[in-house]
Design a protein that fits this description.
Blueprint (H helix, E strand, L loop, with lengths): L14 H15 L9 H29 L4 E5 L9 H7 L3 H10 L4 H5 L11 H15 L4 E6 L7 E5 L2 E5 L11 E3 L5 E5 L2 E4 L5 E4 L2 E13 L6 E11 L1 H9 L3 H12 L16 H22 L9 H4 E6 L6 H12 L4 H11 E4 L10 E3 H7 L1 H22 L3 H7 L2 E2 L5 E3 H8 L2 E4 L2 H11 L1 H6 L4 E3 L6 H7 L2 H11 L20 H26 L8 E6 L8 H16 L11 E6 L7 H19 L7 E4 L6 H7 L5 E4 L11 H7 L3 E4 L5 H8 L5 E2 L4 H10 L3 H7 L1 H11 L12 H9 L5 H20 L1 H13 L6 H13 L9
Parallel strand pairs: 1-2, 1-11, 2-10, 11-12, 12-16, 16-17, 18-19, 18-21, 19-20, 21-22, 22-23
Antiparallel strand pairs: 3-4, 5-9, 6-9, 7-8, 9-10, 13-15, 14-15
Bound molecules: pyridoxal-5'-phosphate.
GO molecular function: glycogen phosphorylase activity; pyridoxal phosphate binding
Catalytic activity: [(1->4)-alpha-D-glucosyl](n) + phosphate = [(1->4)-alpha-D-glucosyl](n-1) + alpha-D-glucose 1-phosphate
Organism: Xylanimonas cellulosilytica (strain DSM 15894 / JCM 12276 / CECT 5975 / KCTC 9989 / LMG 20990 / NBRC 107835 / XIL07)
């Protein structure tokens, strides 16, 4: 590291400086001219221009951290669902207006160039988006932090519909080049797999790997909001080792060399689609170890330095494990300490436990990762040995504490015996970390009482809660410029980094003029959505209808089916004349959801939504009052236009199944009212916004559990509820499948005979809640009063607050301002 930063000034922060830099990028980096440039050229030049403003801050941040190391946070996550980078870089650097003006002076339109950016789809949904919100907040809070993850060559698949059915296409997000990443091939590290272990005469163990790959880091800027800090997100990409290539080339086998390269590079080829049933995919375990091993090595060798005293590691860093995906880091750190650095086992274990903390993200037992012992022993033989020893010592402690309760010991063992011997990663995480958190109050409580109950009894002090949040920069300031301006006019702009200040809006709920302007903004946000859906999907929606939105991954526990049943019931009532289209509240129901490609039932539900939608929209009577829109390929970019336009937010999971949800928070912050169950963070949203401003329905978690235990009979609801019966019969009749009764039979039959997520049990309560929604919506003054109160009372759901909670309860790192 050089002692002084070379005095290369950033381009001047004004329109002239911006324009000059833009033309320089277009001419000298992109190698074209204003006349010849394609839209992509113009976008790339713009991205590089904005990047150049942040570059000196990035360098300064990194230099400062090397000179004056402070306690840091490393967020380890297999997913970072970043969304578009340009918009966020513009607001973080204070360039938004300058860029718009500068580009206009060249005859270019900022919004048009913005739209050219392909978002990196490096995540499935909520978990990946949370990681992206968290690193944004850490930078804004001035915390020395780094995100570590995987640079998938193909992110989450691009969804299209053919005959209403989901078709997956590869997401070639890197095709046009990404101006936001900087490769650091000189900082590559080698990651090994396979082979065997050997014990030396002195008792030390050596892992003799069978093969290895290189991990090449790509750095992404994570700019704090107007504070001069730019943190780093480091994503690893797999390459074949040079030695490997050379040896094979020496034998002259070109094809074999290419095969080896392809094999190595497969590791970071694709993002695995989430389906809450982790499959024993060897490649997925390779991905996990690959990025975790590279990240630990990177931190220990490069950041701390090769000669550092690793006993100080816990003072320097907390590795936060985002779900179980990075949990193999625990035995990896043990291996580094014990095998490579010669630290005695007990001391190494004490260090390791103090370096890691674990965030659990689920309540579904089938979503807890397990890896077969056979696979782990083959792929990571030394790690398997380490896990055995960790388990032996842990179980000895369990016996010491609770006596020889062998049932308990078997329950708590990190190694499951049935149906096959497998490592329970959530248990390894619970044993190898100093803190375990759930992601909403209810979720943390259920973790303690159910999923990880034995561990909570064994070590209650480890358990805590941190309720999730979303970044107000992207999901309010960027996504909703109209509302942002209104809020700033009313209370100043401090809310962007201190979202609790939204509470100062409370008095404006009673200000008729403020409410009118709020409605006007909602209406113009709907106009933006109309344009987007028209251009992107060829879908026409009416901005003068209530926008009723359910967007999230497709999963049975989230209960998109409950929403479909409501649509079908309304269709039935409108068609039969029971409801008069002229006098009912006009709604547009918007769905957005991807199904994991291997999750059959989820894909059937997508087909059902599309087929019901086609029928509803095609019916001359029904469509006067009800329409369905299902734009394909829901992603962060779509969310940014959809959420600010929504009137009603559907958060209708079965109570006790959704860990937190973050979509629910985005909607409340943008003035949609929630119809929701008492689940995840909905509980806290309702407590904060008040019962009068939230449409609660459905069973509570204890009620649902009690029914399940006593024996749940979904068909009884069908038999006793005429409305429900008509809706289900209509689906079964072939009404939405061209008369073919077999198409949706599996869905109907599953609901009648299994209904694991109690759709039928909550049906009537949901329909009643929707009646209340309609009645309330007719009183637009009351409705808008509630929307203002939702915004004013949702400041708690900022990811800045989440990060502060992690800092106070887990990390204990302090802000370090970057000197300008
Ligand atoms: C916020 C977000 C999610 C999470 O939504 P939930 O309703 O909390 O499941 C998923 N996908 C995208 C693109 C998001 O922006």
């Amino acid at each position: 590291m050089t002692e002084t930063i070379p005095p290369i000034a950033s381009p001047e922060l004004n329109v002239e400086g911006f324009t000059r830099q833009y033309l320089r990028e277009l001419t000298y980096t992109q190698g074209t001219t204003l006349e010849r440039a394609s839209t992509n050229d113009k976008y790339l030049a713009l991205a590089r221009t904005v990047r150049s403003y942040l570059m000196s801050r990035w360098n300064r941040t990194v230099t400062q951290e090397f000179r004056k190391p402070a306690r840091a946070v490393a967020y380890l996550s297999a997913e970072f669902l970043l969304g578009r980078q340009l918009d966020n870089a513009l607001i973080a650097s204070g360039l938004e207006e300058i860029a718009a003006e500068g580009l206009a002076s060249l005859g270019l339109d900022l919004d048009e160039l913005r739209a050219a950016e392909v978002e990196p789809g490096l995540g499935n949904g909520g978990l990946g988006r949370l990681a992206a919100c968290f690193i944004d907040s850490l930078a804004t809070l001035n915390i020395p932090a780094v995100g570590y993850g995987i640079r998938y060559e193909f992110g989450i698949f691009r969804q299209t519909f053919v005959d209403g059915r989901q078709v997956e296409e590869p997401d070639n997000w890197l095709d046009n080049g990404s101006p936001w990443e900087i490769a650091r091939p000189e900082q590559e590290v080698e990651v090994s797999f396979g082979g065997h272990t050997e014990v030396g005469p002195d008792g030390t163990t050596t892992w003799v790997p069978g093969w290895s790959v290189l991990a090449v880091p790509y750095n992404y800027m994570v700019p704090g909001y107007l504070n001069g800090r730019v943190n780093t997100l480091r994503l690893w990409s797999a390459r074949a080792t040079h030695a490997f290539d050379l040896k094979i080339f020496n034998y002259g086998d070109y094809a074999e060399a290419v095969r080896a390269q392809t094999f190595a590079e497969n590791i970071t080829k694709v993002l695995y689609p989430e389906d809450s049933t982790p499959q024993g995919k060897e490649l997925r375990l390779q991905q996990q170890y690959f990025f975790v091993a590279a990240s630990l090595r990177d931190f220990v060798e490069r950041v701390l330095g090769p000669d550092s005293d690793l006993r100080e590691l816990p003072e320097r860093i907390t590795f936060q494990l985002n779900d179980t995906h990075p949990v193999i880091a625990i035995p990896e750190l043990m291996r580094i300490l014990v095998d490579l650095k010669g630290v005695p086992w007990d001391e190494a274990w004490a260090i390791t436990q103090k370096c890691f903390a674990y965030t659990c993200h689920t309540l579904l037992p089938e979503a807890l990762e397990v890896w077969p012992v056979e696979l782990l022993s083959r792929l990571l033989p030394r790690h398997m040995e380490i896990i055995y020893r960790i388990n032996d010592e842990f179980l000895a402690q369990v016996r010491a504490k609770f006596g020889n309760d062998e049932m308990l010991v078997r329950r708590m063992s990190i190694i499951a015996e049935y149906p096959e011997r497998a490592v329970r990663m959530a248990y390894l995480a619970s044993v190898g970390t100093f803190k375990i958190n759930g992601v909403a109050e209810l979720h943390s409580q259920l973790l303690r009482e159910k999923v990880l109950n034995d561990f909570a009894v064994f070590a209650p002090e480890k358990f805590t809660n941190v309720t999730n949040g979303v970044t107000p920069r992207r999901f309010v300031r960027l996504a909703n410029p109209g509302l942002s301006a209104l809020i700033t006019e009313a209370i100043g702009d401090g809310w962007v980094t201190d979202l609790g200040r939204l509470s100062e809006l409370e008095p404006f709920a009673d200000d008729a003029e403020f409410r009118r302007r709020f409605r006007e903004i909602k209406r113009s946000n709907k106009d933006r959505l109309v344009t987007l859906l028209k251009n992107r999907d060829g879908i026409d929606i009416d901005p003068d209808t209530m926008l009723d939105v359910m967007v999230k991954r497709l999963h049975e526990y989230k209960r998109q089916l409950l929403k479909v049943l409501h649509v079908v019931a309304q269709y039935d009532r409108l068609k039969s004349g029971e409801l008069d289209p002229a006098s009912t509240v006009h709604r547009t129901v918007v769905f957005g959801a991807k199904a994991a490609p291997g999750y059959q039932m989820a894909k059937e539900i997508i087909a059902l939504i599309n087929h019901v939608g086609a029928r509803v929209n095609g019916d001359p009577v029904v469509s006067q009052a009800l329409r369905v829109a299902f734009p394909a390929n829901y992603n962060v970019t779509v969310a940014e236009t959809l959420v600010p336009a929504a009137d009603l937010s559907e958060q209708i999971s079965l109570a006790g199944k959704e860990a937190s949800g973050t979509g629910n928070m985005k909607f409340a912050l943008n003035g949609a009212l929630t119809v929701g169950t008492d689940d995840g963070a909905n509980v806290e949203i309702r407590q904060l916004v008040g019962d009068d401003n939230f449409f609660l329905f459905g069973l509570t978690e204890p009620e649902a559990s009690a029914i399940q235990e006593a024996g749940y009979h979904p068909a009884a609801h069908y038999e006793q509820n005429p409305g429900l019966r008509r809706a289900l019969d209509l689906i079964a009749s072939g009404e939405f499948s061209g008369g073919d009764r077999s198409v949706f039979e599996p869905i109907v039959s599953n609901l009648l005979h299994e209904d694991r997520f109690m759709v039928l049990a909550d049906y009537q309560s949901y329909i009643d809640a929707q009646e209340r929604v309609d009645a309330y919506y007719r009183d637009q003054e009351a409705w808008s009063r509630s929307t203002v109160l939702n915004v004013a009372r949702s400041g708690f759901f900022s990811s800045d607050r989440s990060m502060q909670d992690y800092l106070d309860r887990i990390w204990h790192a302090k802000p370090v301002p970057v000197e300008l």
